[in-house]
Design a protein that fits this description.
Layout (H helix, E strand, L loop, with lengths): L4 H18 L14 H10 L12 H4 L5 H18 L5 E4 L2 E4 H23 L20
Antiparallel strand pairs: 1-2
Helix pairs in contact: 1-4, 2-4, 4-5
């Protein structure tokens, strides 16, 4: 059974719903959530799969994915980064008290770092690969 965009969206929303709501991202899981397109597209590209249209990942783009867990973990990292990028570091003061949203951003930054380390450990993403080759130092010395 092929992986669908709606399935991936459902997993991402279940993992990040509260944070998505905080930055007013859509939490729909019908396969057309624009806020989840970039994370899914980025995850596919990291896995070496180029979607036909990077602005709108389709089910057909996900058909060749063999490791759904890896795709979802990679997409989650990008989604958390997008949430952080759309979150304001502000402090609100009202008669009822003070609210520091920068604390939430600091916690989110730590969460992203932990998730990136987990993804790197699990899948080796972000690590260089060993390759063999030959280096030619052809040059001509001046007389």
């Amino acid at each position: 059974m092929a992986l669908t965009r709606a399935q991936v969206e459902s997993i991402l929303v279940s993992r990040c719903k509260k944070r998505m709501v905080f930055v007013e991202f859509a939490i729909t899981t019908n396969g057309s959530n624009a806020d989840l397109n970039d994370p899914i597209c980025t995850a596919l590209q990291v896995m070496g799969i180029n979607p036909a249209n990077i602005a709108s990942v389709a089910d057909s783009d996900l058909a060749t994915v063999t490791d759904a867990a890896k795709l979802c973990d990679l997409a989650e990292v990008r989604l958390l980064e997008n949430i952080l990028g759309n979150s304001d570091k502000v402090t609100l003061q009202a008669a009822s008290g003070t609210e520091h949203f920068s604390n939430a951003n600091d916690a989110l930054e730590k969460m992203i770092a932990r998730k990136q380390a987990e993804v790197q450990k699990k899948y080796g993403v972000g690590l260089g690969s060993l390759q063999s080759g030959k280096l030619s130092m052809s040059f001509q010395a001046k007389p």
